[in-house]
Amino acid sequence: MYIYDNLKNMIEFTPNFPLRQYNTFGIDVKAKYFAGFSSLAELHELIDDKLFMKHPSLILGGGSNVLFTKDFDGLIIHPKLEEINRIEETNEEIILKVGSGIIWDNLVEYAVLHGWGGLENLSAIPGNVGAAPIQNIGAYGAEIKDVIDKVIGIDLSNKKTCTFKNTECEFGYRSSIFKTRLKSKFLITHVVFRLKKFPHSLITGYGEIERILEHEKERTISVMRTVICNIRSSKLPDVKTKGNAGSYFKNPVVDIEIIEQLKKRMKDIPVYETPEGDYKLSAAWLIEKSGCKGIRSGNAGTHDHQPLVLINHGNATGKEILELADFIKEKVYQLFGIVLEPEVNVI
Length: 347
What we know:
By secondary structure, this protein is of the alpha+beta class.
């Protein structure tokens, strides 16, 4: 173990570090070095160290959106900032500054218990807070971009603290500036959320939510969280028992010409119009119609109830998962002429 010690703080760089517990696919790989930080002072020491300067680095939180296909020949940086601070509050809303190391669903639970609305539809999504703006995570009609006020972090090229306002984050469908132009160049330390206190604006028109709510006595963010958690648990495998990264592919966004061509062949194809005027197809529906629901190849497979989720049935390698993903992409392309894009970052 290599230790950096400046008599104030101590950073440990652990060599040959196993990453199985740090990726929700449960892929058994190792990192050349691993280091965590629990404060901004420790982070600055870490990025000043010669090991950071000499090796490629990867920022890894909960590992819920990554697929390792081999050992990582570099330094894994693991954020452990876990504070939640109220920085502004009115009768209508509250602004929270949240550390990137907080488990995402713990934050959602915390907000709902305090009566702060805006995160409830994003319940039970695996991962940490720091990864959420990178992906612009979304579910059941909600996206995190709608509640983010600012994203704060360190520019790794010059080691300066930078703040990005919401409009500067270039949020898109499962994307942001942190996933595109600033990928591997910017380390998120905190996310600032603007949440509503009351009255809450519930998003209920997605999927089966409205049907379930018809049987509820009241419609609150607490009820919404319970409904969302129940839906997800009924459809999606628990990462603790079946390694997975949630939705492996994005829902394809296409123009009206492609929609019209597809509807001539398959009138029942589900289509969702986006606010930008494009049209979104269901990747799960495309995969199922391609015959890939519930299939298995070696230790890799797709989920019986949700074919958008690729599963590690036990001791799958990252290459096995990737090969299955490529097989599914080819099957969908052959049948529909649609190219599926992964949500997951392949390492």
